[in-house]
Amino acid sequence: MKIALGQINPTIGDFTGNSKKIIESSRQALALGAEMVLFPELAVCGYPPRDLLEKPAFVERNQQVIKEIAQAVPQITIVCGFVSPAKVETGKSVMNSAAVLRQGAVQFVQSKMLLPTYDVFDEMRYFDPAESQKLLPLADKKFALTICEDAWNDKHFWHRRLYRVDPVDELLHAGGNMVLNISASPFHLGKRELRRQMLATIARDNKVPVLFVNQVGGNDSLIFDGSSMVIAPSGEIVAQAKSFEEDLVIFDSETMQGQMHEQVPVGMPSAYAGLALGTRDYVRKCGFSKVVIGLSGGIDSALTAAIAVEALGKENVTGIAMPSQYSSEHSIKDARELACKLGIRFEVIAIGDIFDGYRKALAPLFAGKPEDVAEENIQSRIRGNILMAFSNKFGALVLTTGNKSEVGVGYCTLYGDMVGGLGVISDVPKTMVYELSRYVNSLKPVIPQSTIDKAPSAELRPGQKDSDTLPPYEVLDNILEDYVEDYHTAEQIAADRGYDVREVRDVIRMIERSEYKRQQAAPGLKITPKAFGLGRRFPIAQKSEV
């Protein structure tokens, strides 16, 4: 049997667009000789639909569309994710399901058993879990059809399993001889390798092929890398789709051979491709086509601009430099050089007179007080107002430029540099910003070397450097990783890293004190295992003693 993996980029709620992608890919698979084509988890409505599932009309439209897809391409078997009604009197009203479409009708439905609630997932909020699953008999095969998390509980791979049942194991023990897994598995650095190792363990231990099709594209903060694949019983990858773009690959179950499409290398190439995809889809799926960025001459705004150009094209990106009396001449020069090399529109709006106007207006209220962070933040908020004015006038979405290190410790200004619609690099630690910038320049040297070489500075007061307020970024990023991703204590971090425990506690205090800022920030693209935002849910008002 020839089976196709239909790796598509759905838009949440775009039933017309999503069904068109499914139908067109199915027809393409049929033309290539495939007898079956697999599509991702909840491909009909897009993943994750979140509270849209509470709208009856949304669920009804989804169920109508799955029938329309079946009727549109009756000549091929289609396996497709959708929302099905839960046939129970208690619990949730819908289930996360896979429909098997044959000869113009829905002939088989398998629902998801394992509903994740960790990190960015919240499926128990919406779905009723399947109590049992059945094999899908087709031709001479007995398919173990599973949905995403159903394959993430293998006892041979995980030291500690999250669930008491293993749907894959149960289906294979019932006689299944091929695993099908339709997924919407979000990307983060290291995730693709983890997936491959886990699925290869299932294939080797059970001596069966594993077919995995994954959603691709950006939906809000989440990036889906695709990277669909087929793994032979030996654990070898015998078919694979591209990363970070739509694709269709064919696999022959008799010869155990399939198409091998090139994937983006791991590390910085994947981070860059993921951020570009996430930016492109967020901007376009939200109804925008153009973006505007405040260009300070620093490395964060430079990297953000480079990603924006990769995502949207240079004609859709505008950079605005907004120097004050504290801005260095080389910062304006670097911003202009960056814009020139990227080929984007560049504007300069000096804020010195506006800042003086603020200081004059506030002088009676601030009488007798020295200038401090209040005046520094006024400059940042002036810049935020200018960017938002441009956004309103020209319909360009503002991209914020704060990195994970700054957002983590609150080294950012509410309603200033934090204004905007998307935090492109808000999950990129400062040290990784430098790595990514060097990678960008290896493709095409667009970021000025002086931007990379100079000491980071907000330039909000004379001679200011980030190091005046923060530990070296190499130290700060290690503390952030240990505390935010691994929940280590200050004492553990200090002992493991050889740091002064007082410095570690100071950083942790900054992290906790800044929660109110982060919860007002623009959504950011997730590329690390634990990002600020949807997958990290802490109270704002708290007093932590551990």
Describe the protein's architecture and organization.
It is a single chain. The protein is of the alpha/beta class and 546 residues long. It has helices at residues 15-31, 56-72, 167-173, 191-206, 268-285, 299-312, 329-342, 352-366, 373-394, 404-409, 430-443, 449-453, 473-485, 490-497, 501-513, 515-518, and strands at residues 2-7, 36-38, 77-85, 94-102, 105-111, 136-138, 141-147, 178-183, 210-214, 216-219, 222-225, 229-231, 237-240, 247-252, 257-258, 290-294, 317-321, 345-348, 396-400, 422-423. It has 3 domains: 2-257, 4-Layer Sandwich (Nitrilase/N-carbamoyl-D-aminoacid amidohydrolase); 271-468 and 514-518, Rossmann fold, CATH 3.40.50; 471-512. It is built from 16 helices and 20 strands. Helix 5 (268-285) crosses helix 11 (430-443) and helix 13 (473-485) crosses helix 15. The chain is elongated. It starts with a strand and ends in a 28-residue tail after the last helix.
Shape: elongated
Helix content: 25-40%
C-alpha Rg (nearest Å)? 25 Å
| Major sheet attributes | 7 strands, mixed
- Quote the CATH topology of the largest domain: Nitrilase/N-carbamoyl-D-aminoacid amidohydrolase
Based on DSSP secondary structure assignment, what is the total number of beta strands? 20
Fraction in beta strands: 15-25%
Question: How many separate domains?
Answer: 3
- CATH homology-level superfamily of the largest domain: Carbon-nitrogen hydrolase
Query: In the CATH hierarchy, what is the architecture of the largest domain at level 2?
Result: 4-Layer Sandwich
Distance between the termini: 57 Å
The total count of helices amounts to 16
CATH class category label of the largest domain: Alpha Beta
